[in-house]
Amino acid sequence: MFQGASALTLDAKGRMSIPSRYRDALQIQAEGRVTLTKSPDGCLLLFPRPEWERFREKVAQLPMNAMWWRRIFLGNAMDLDLDTAGRVLVSPELRSAAALEKDVTLLGMGAHFELWDTQMYQAKEAEAMAEGMPEALKNFTF
Hints:
Blueprint: E1 2-9, E2 15-17, H1 20-30, E3 33-38, E4 44-48, H2 49-60, H3 67-75, E5 78-81, E6 87-89, H4 92-97, E7 103-110, E8 113-117, H5 118-131
Antiparallel strand pairs: 1-7, 2-6, 3-4, 3-5, 4-8, 7-8
């Protein structure tokens, strides 16, 4: 399970170093193979390959009235391998889709990661905090 936030920087070629605390797990779980795709939330989703394959199967089974979501998730997916320095190359198309330029935030979300433009993530987090807890969390105990 991946958790936590990492402040990262994309280099001039669009490469991102995967934090060392996740590299070993990605090597063991996925042999360094990951898949990156668009998210409807304005970020990118980064999956270890076995998790991607499970997600892909679910998406492929969506009904015809969800065809655009199949296109968004599957049509934009890119299979990547961590290089010897533990980096992945984020394609120009996916960088553009999530407005990623230099400063990015990688969030561990359990079985996968989200990759955000740092300023966009901070703005959306502040907006969510200002709205208060959703009804689903009103009876949640810490």
